[in-house]
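With this grant's support, we have settled on a layout for protein records. One resulting record is reproduced below.
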Amino acid sequence: MGGVGWRAGEERAPGEVQRVPPLFFSSSQAAGVPPLARSQATTLQLNVGLHCNQACAHCHVESSPLRTEAMSADTADRCLALAAAARPTLTTLDLTGGAPELHSTFRGLVEGARALGLEVIDRCNLTVLSEPGQEGLAQFLAANRVRVVASLPCYTPGTVDAQRGRGVYERSVDGLKRLNAAGYGCPGTGLALDLVYNPGGAFLAPPQAELEPAFRRELADAHGISFTSLLALNNMPIKRFADYLIRNQELDAYMSTLVAAFNPRTVPGLMCRATVSVGWDGALYDCDFNQQLAMPAGGGGRLTVHDVGSLDDLVGRSIALGSHCYGCTAGSGSGCQGSTA
């Protein structure tokens, strides 16, 4: 499909997405969208490592129990120093992985960021709460007032297990109950528990407002579980999900779906504008998806947290774009905070 930067049947490495975005750029221009450039950062997102207790079929990070990559203590300390210097514009430290909780830098980053007055987000797969050694995790998160953003692609066991592994639904329910018991998702506690939905196939996420009532009803009726809000994300055509699309000969069709659903109203809310993404090795990116495709911030040479004096060094730089950017701008939009339109 030449319109998204390749021809049908063109030779590509597994999981690869074309990095030259002629159609995305022209779509933005035609919609009157100014060229995308970085503003001052409000969120610093750290991928603290790729080790995870799961190996989900849709994972754009390709995490698994076999991965050993992990952020060093020195890099974690440098991230906290950059965050401190970026206050008060910077308001949030967003921790992801892998399963971020399984990495040695996780708790120090949480406590360090809270000491700076930052909101901390833990992107949690839920099953980590029942891993050996994590028995007090829910209490640690609650004591530090961490916002938990938890992956739960559906409220039915079959769909969750097909995407995330056998037995994951049951363990996810157990994790949600542990979080509820610690006060998460309960009225009056101020402990936010957001659930993340993503499609089980090559289609767009429905609007959040349409899905959330069903999630609330089904989880409450079946398990007595409550949560704060639902975030609906599109699957990004990179890494494991791209491999899935290629195996099923659906990549070109899915890209066509994304292109056809381009929505310029999503652009002002794109996370790449005010989020700095940091890899486990300290490298800087415009977003988590660019990180997985090794597209450095601004599309230039590789920079790390040790190469910049402050996060303001990135302000005004062009944002590195690729055809996968249609995933964030299709339909209601998609980003780490859910829909953008």
